[in-house]
């Protein structure tokens, strides 16, 4: 399998414990400066990151693949413009489309390539996004278990989660249907 052409800064793999004796817990997490660092109330990114890190620590082993794909791959400045459109009533998908982007511009080939380079052939993946499962499977990585990354929704980002479920196919079982 060919390794995608990437810069070193495109992803970081944080590894804890013995990741080879059994399929490790893995989280593919896209950078979210506003959520991960500044604790934005618009998304669940920080909470998902914290959940994943806690599960890895609890398990005693795992991998966090942290990718530089801010704002679903549109970049920080475009994401901030999308925030302005959301303040005017658009949802995240509508805002990206209005700015000329796809609803999600991220690519998930890099995590599969990184895991293959590490010799990982099977994982227990923490995600609500079926595209991440498909991308790993396409890269020859068996996803033996999908672990939910669902967190308790805050009122400030409940609509965001519903849009991810209804328009992007993310898996959220506990969100109320309205």
From TrEMBL:
Q: Which reaction does it catalyse?
A: GTP + 4 H2O = 2,5-diamino-6-hydroxy-4-(5-phosphoribosylamino)-pyrimidine + formate + 2 phosphate + 3 H(+)
Pfam families per record? GTP_cyclohydro2 (PF00925)
Alphabetical list of CDD domains matching this protein: GTP_cyclohydro2
Instruction: Reply yes or no: does the keyword Amino-acid biosynthesis apply.
Output: no
InterPro entries linked to this entry? GTP_cyclohydro_II, RibA, RibA-like_sf
Which residue numbers delimit the GTP cyclohydrolase II domain? 9-147
The molecular function terms of the Gene Ontology recorded here are: GTP binding; GTP cyclohydrolase II activity; metal ion binding
Question: Which GO BP terms apply?
Answer: riboflavin biosynthetic process
Enzyme Commission code: 3.5.4.25
Query: What are the protein's UniProt keywords?
Result: GTP-binding, Hydrolase, Metal-binding, Nucleotide-binding, Riboflavin biosynthesis, Zinc
Q: Which Gene3D superfamilies match?
A: GTP cyclohydrolase II
This protein's pathway: Cofactor biosynthesis; riboflavin biosynthesis; 5-amino-6-(D-ribitylamino)uracil from GTP: step 1/4
Q: Which cofactor does it need?
A: Zn(2+)
Give GO cellular component annotations, separated by semicolons.
cytosol
Major enzyme class: hydrolase
Keyword Protease tagged: no
- Check the record and name the NCBIfam families matching this protein: PRK00393.1, ribA
Q: What is this protein called?
A: GTP cyclohydrolase II
